[in-house]
Design a protein that fits this description.
By secondary structure, this protein is mainly α. The chain is 74% helix and 0% strand. The chain has a single domain (16-254), classed as Heme Oxygenase, Chain A (Up-down Bundle). The chain is globular.
Length: 257
């Protein structure tokens, strides 16, 4: 089974960016959506389940990264958006009482707990293997965020926000593919808590759009040459880290099958 085909016109980038930035905004999505691991998880339920395990600590650690990003940047528009993102991550929902169970990390944990209880998962992954995957996931997440925290320490607003946008640029498409694959599990799919999947299929489209608007604002000032260099550098570094995240997950699959 092949991963869902990606068409260039589906890339959600604004038409008024200069060509180099426009190309990078497209790459931040395609280099993950077209990653070979997507063919592997489409062809094997075990690979799909192990990907979810290996991806877990990336999700659990994301809130700490967003909080550090918020404290680091000074641009008011960017800070306002990151603040809203941070509130979502920790579980605040408009018009509802805050509950820790809505924390995005906890939603993903609930997804994994429900997935592990399905017959499809239990038929291919042992409890020992689940514990091993959790340890591997911790290392994968640590390497990924070490790169982003290095950008936070050394970069300015333009570079750090551009790097952050490289994550938001691929999440909704990747999660949509996962939702489609999970839907193929038959009756087991009905028992899985898909709130985290459904949420990120929707909200990160808007997050990406707003971040693109902020990047456009960075590029509209008087120092456009320097601004373009810093935004493009941030996109390049962020893209490399996102690709590295899935490279790491892919290697973990390859060394155990």
């Amino acid at each position: 089974m092949n991963a869902p085909q990606v068409f260039p016109h589906e890339v959600r980038v604004e038409p008024d960016f200069q060509s180099s930035t426009h190309a990078l905004l497209a790459l931040r999505e395609h280099l993950v959506i077209d990653h070979p691991i997507n063919d592997r998880v489409s062809a094997s339920q075990r690979n799909l389940f192990e990907l979810f395990e290996l991806y877990a600590h990336f999700v659990y650690d994301f809130n700490a990264y967003v909080g550090a990003l918020f404290s680091r940047i000074t641009d008011i528009d960017a800070k306002a958006h990151i603040y809203e993102n941070l509130l979502e991550e920790i579980g605040f929902q408009p018009g509802k009482q805050a509950q820790w169970g809505f924390h995005h990390g906890e939603l993903y944990r609930s997804f994994l707990v429900s997935l592990r209880q399905t017959s499809a998962y239990r038929g291919v992954i042992s409890e020992d293997r689940t514990r091993e995957l959790d340890m591997l996931s911790r290392g994968i997440s640590e390497r990924f965020y070490a790169g982003h925290f290095d950008i936070l320490r050394k970069g300015n607003d333009r570079l750090t926000v551009a790097a952050f946008s490289s994550i938001e640029g691929w999440v909704s498409r990747e999660y949509a593919m996962w939702r489609k694959l999970l839907g193929q599990l038959g009756d087991d799919a009905l028992a899985i808590d898909l709130r985290t999947i459904d949420l990120h299929c929707e909200c990160d489209i808007e997050h990406s759009r707003v971040l693109d608007s902020i990047l456009r604002g960075f590029l509209a000032g008087d120092d456009r040459t320097l601004a373009a260099h810093e935004v493009n550098s941030g996109l390049l570094r962020g893209i490399a880290l996102s690709v590295g995240l899935f490279d790491d997950i892919d290697r973990a699959l390859a060394t155990t099958h």
